[in-house]
Amino acid sequence: MADTLIFAIPKGRILDDALPVLARVGIEPAPEFHDPKNRSLRFRTNRADMDIIRVRAFDVATFVAHGAAQIGIVGSDVIDEFDYSDLYAPVDLNFGHCRLSVAEPVDEAGGHQPRPSHIRVATKYPNITRRHFERQGVQAECVKLNGAMELAPSLGLARQIVDLVESGRTLKDNGLVETEVITQVSARLIINRAALKKDHARLGPLMSAFRDLAAEQRQAA
Amino acid sequence: MSETNPDILPAGLADLLPPRAEQAARLTRNAMDVFAGHGYDRVSPPLVEYERSLASRMQGTGRQHLFRMVDPTSMRTLAIRSDITVQVGRVATTLMASAPRPLRLSYAGQVLRIASDQLAPERERLQIGAELIGHDNIAAAQEVVRIAIEALSQAGVSGITVDLTLPDLVDTLAGTAFPLVPTEISSVRRELDMKDAGGLTALGADAYLPLLYAMGPFEVAITALAAIDAGGVLASRISALRQIVAGLPDDVTVTLDPTERHGFEYQSWFGFSLYAEGCAGVLGRGGTYAIPDGKGGEEVATGFSLYPDGLLDMELNGGDGSAGKLFLPLGHDRAVAARLRAIGWRTLAALTDSDDAVALGCTHRLDGNETIQL
């Protein structure tokens, strides 16, 4: 199979940490990739049989799940949100650490009021949020936002939010406090299920290289 | 809300137009001919059954995906089939319970599920399959895998990959060599299914790690699997897999992924999935399983189903086999036309003298006894 392998990586938070990891397994994007003025979305790499695409985090999972890209790196928050059956997440790359948490206004947090059976939550992660509150017997009505979740409580859109928390700084600046951690998040290698079966010759060694690298780093830590 | 187009189809449903409808029919015909050639007799169960009967033979999440309605005649709940295999199971263990075993049955038809997802948006699919009822031994597995491959290659599919798996491996190991308490089994299985080595370690299930590395090209993977010391539990499985693979055609790629669970909710010791070059998803699955007979017992079986919708847009070797479309002008010789049809021509007879052969897609025109290229 001589088709070009497509490696999908997300814009933003994870990208800076991902590039050195890619370099360690021998994948270097073409120089244009680092040019901020370049508007391309697809780039050549030092491997003739591999291109890199740079897309939004949620789209990394979608491209790989559909097999449009065969392999990618994405946060475990995205994997949990989609719960795509056609993704393997074989390696915890041990960077991009943060957590997915519930937060609410400082003045309303704490206290021991009985839990309501129905709440409204502003989030980019409606599926994780719904599942999380379902386990507690609470029906969560999610208001899907794509950013600036922290504004929702003060403007009356929803009393609680579910969002990624790294340092907790943004929450604090917006008068919110983290009340519950839903899950810890880190960057994962993902591979399309069918692609790994059909093209194990190329994807298998890549998977092993990332796995060895992650194990090595864990041992060093 | 604005009025929507009244002719639009509901989400996940589509018309098959030419040439896709023809391709679907041809794939079905080819596969059914292969099954018939190997002694499988065709059955054709109804589209709708009592929900209770269908659901009682379905495992896992399948029964959540049934379209249901109330039968005005019996006031019982009906369901539209989402899997013909369970209907064949019912036929085999009831109406054909006394037929000699092994019982070889084949089927083809449309199935429907109530919900779809972004990855597989279609709600209606074509299902074609064959089931060998009464045996789940190595010989049965060999026969079924071979026939599945033959059905695809007869239809012109090339670059076939067969991925073998051992669906009940984790359950077996959890009860013997690598003990797990029942509550841990599903977590371990999930991490194995995601191929997540770190997740297995976090669960304290390091014993299962080598299984993750025993995947890939068959020879490499089976050697890795053989190196795992599981107190002999694996030895018989390994030998069985080797025997199954030994009989497969050379041009088929064989891979092994012993912990693949996805799509194998009801299979027992052996399962396989089929992939083809140029087709993104899985084309079919099969394996060994047990059919509940409705009286508390069960009967073993081996079989597979193909879901060939992914092939409808592919150029398959052997193409549509037609020599071309031949325009028959008014007053043509009917005997000549009949002879040409008999050797594979498709003819299109003029109804008026203004019929336009080219616009109607004809490649040739009949002139006396001659076919003239247009």
**Distance between the amino and carboxyl termini of chain B:** 51 Å
Sum up the overall morphology of chain B in one term.
Answer: globular
Count of distinct strands of chain A? 11
Helix coverage percent of chain A: 25-40%
Sequence of secondary-structure elements of chain B: HEEHEEHEEHEHHHHEHHEEEEEHEEE
Number of helical segments with 4 or more residues of chain A: 8
> Low-confidence parts of chain A, pLDDT < 50 over ≥5 residues?
none
Q: β content of chain A, as a range? A: 25-35%
Distance between the termini of chain A: 38 Å
What class do helices, strands and sheet pairing of chain A give? Answer: alpha/beta
Mean pLDDT value of chain B: 90
Could you give a short account of the major beta sheet of chain A? Answer: 6 strands, mixed
- In terms of per-residue confidence, which ranges of chain B show pLDDT below 50 for 5 or more consecutive residues? none
Might you state the CATH topology name of the largest domain in chain B? BirA Bifunctional Protein, domain 2
Count of alpha/pi helices of chain B: 11
Number of strand segments of chain B: 16
What Rg of chain B is obtained from the alpha carbons, in whole angstroms?
A: 25 Å
CATH class of the largest domain in chain B: Alpha Beta
CA-based gyration radius of chain A? 19 Å
Number of domains of chain B: 3
Question: What characteristic shape of chain A results from the CA principal axes?
Answer: elongated
A few lines on this structure:
The complex is a heterodimer of chains A (221) and B (374). Chain A is α/β, with parallel strands linked by helices and 221 residues long.
Explained architecture:
The complex is a heterodimer of chains A (221) and B (374). Chain A is an alpha/beta fold. Chain A has helices spanning 15-24, 57-65, 76-82, 126-135, 151-154, 169-173, 193-198, 200-220; strands at residues 5-10, 42-44, 50-55, 71-75, 87-92, 98-105, 118-123, 139-144, 160-165, 176-185, 187-192. In chain A, the strands form two sheets. In chain A, strands 2-3-1-4-11-5 form a six-stranded mixed beta sheet, with helices on both faces. Chain A has a five-stranded mixed beta sheet with strand order 8-7-9-6-10. In chain A, strand 2 (42-44) and strand 3 form a beta hairpin. The model of chain A has no long low-confidence stretch (mean pLDDT 91). With 374 residues, chain B is α+β, with helices and mostly antiparallel strands. Chain B folds into three domains: 13-156 and 275-321, Bira Bifunctional Protein, Domain 2 (BirA Bifunctional Protein, domain 2, 2-Layer Sandwich); 168-259, no CATH class; 325-373. Chain B is built from eleven helices and 16 strands. In chain B, the strands form three sheets. Chain B has a nine-stranded mixed beta sheet. The termini of chain B are far apart. At the A-B interface, strand 5, helix 7 and helix 8 of A face helix 7, strand 8 and strand 11 of B.
